Amino acid sequence: MQTPVVLLGANFYTALGAIRTLGRRGVPVYALDYHFPTAYALSSRYVTRKILCPDINREEEALAEFLLKLGKDFSERPVLMATSDSYALLISRHAEELTRYYRFPDLPAGLLEKIIDKKGLDELAREHNLRTPQTFIADQKADIETIAEAIPYPCIIKPALSHMFVKVFRQKCLFAGSKPELVSALETARASGLEVMVQEVIPGFDDRMYVFDAYIDRLGKATHTLTAQKLRQFPINFGSSTLTHHLHDQKMADLGRDYLNRLGYRGYGEIEFKKHPDTEELYLIEINARLSTLNVLFDKCGVEFTYVMYKDLIGDPLPDFHLVEDQPWVFWHAYEDMISVAAYLKKKQLTVGQVIIPWLTHRKAHAIWAADDIKPLFSFAFLILGKTIAKLRRLLKRS
Known about the structure:
alpha/beta, Rossmann fold, D-amino Acid Aminotransferase, Chain A, domain 1
């Protein structure tokens, strides 16, 4: 029997992609989640065992204790993987205890916390001379007027910690096209006790967004790399990918490797860049230190990062591979992309032709659908249907 994987979180297609990658390779996957009704990835035929665990959002310490107890049940240390920032932070914060029972990348102490915290990432960028958009930290002591005068417009307001920001503003970031809009948003954030950041918007449409993905082994060597270009996002302009295709960019690959090397990063990581339309300079937007939403695209292109990490951590690394030949595949999240397309057309950011052409010129790497594993699609559909019915009921009550 192969060394198993304990996967944290199963309520998103990030987890589903990882489960399928590992399961198809014959790796046993123990999938944990705190709420089975919304964890549609658990319906995959490649899940070896479903495990109900404490809520990461409310009981982090209890979940850490749960994992320590679970780890004792395995005859050999399984590989531990995170599907979201909150789970990645849990592993980092409890690395000393967890490493007795699990295998995971050995990151420098405190690095992951800084990467995930947007304020920390800004500090890292300054310390290591990484090119990022102009940014100001708007904490309780900051002078709002000074920031509003100095920042270029348009700009965005985003949180240091996302989940608290969403509770107040009901979105992941705010757009400010003028000084009054920025001042108003910052005053609301301050009244709510939130620490936020104000960042300039690098110009250009969503297809100026790119990703560099890499696996860095324990010696600091980038063994596997790939670059890709976003075409559409949800929500539009400042969201997650709904349509992304493989596109090799050597300059970006070299820069991405250099940035991760400067940080002393280990394991799988993804850097999101935006390319300036006038200067062609690459600006670091964020670093994802957990499994990618684009996992299915990588698999289709022949770079199975989840399996690459697994093999390295069990001491049987795969041969190095850096993808340079463009592949015909595009990642497609059909449900979210349909919503985004409607918004792009409404705002006249895309024409019908521009919407259709990428669909026709690429082979699809579906976020949820898979011919060999169809149950998750139905689980996801029922979940969306339930949310739609609940929303309709709320609207009817108001009327």
